[in-house]
Design a protein that fits this description.
Blueprint: H1 12-40, E1 54-59, E2 62-67, E3 75-80, H2 86-93, E4 96-98, H3 101-112
Length: 113
Amino acid sequence: MQKQGQLQSPYGEILRRYFIIALTICVIAGMVMLHTIRKTTAIAPAAYTAETPYSAGIQNGRVAIYIQGQDTPALLTDIWVDTLPAADQKALQARMGIASEEDLAKFLEDYGS
């Protein structure tokens, strides 16, 4: 039985399925784009100076976090340096300065995912 105001079309169910498929593809594409943008917009490394409270470097092939004035890492991450892009590896070899706790949290999130 047809409700008032509804059109009965033989293509209605097919169009509805195509719409759901197209919407699903758009959502997946959006998620991929956001993930890609998030990966490529990491924090810009600060110059390592005596004023930067944290720095990131390399210890035993892994990313290590140092506290200012200490030569022993405060944190040895599970992030293997050889899995990172060459530019990031080079920055870590020179020891990247990290200006704040917020930047440290973002650094670890960006490099750890």
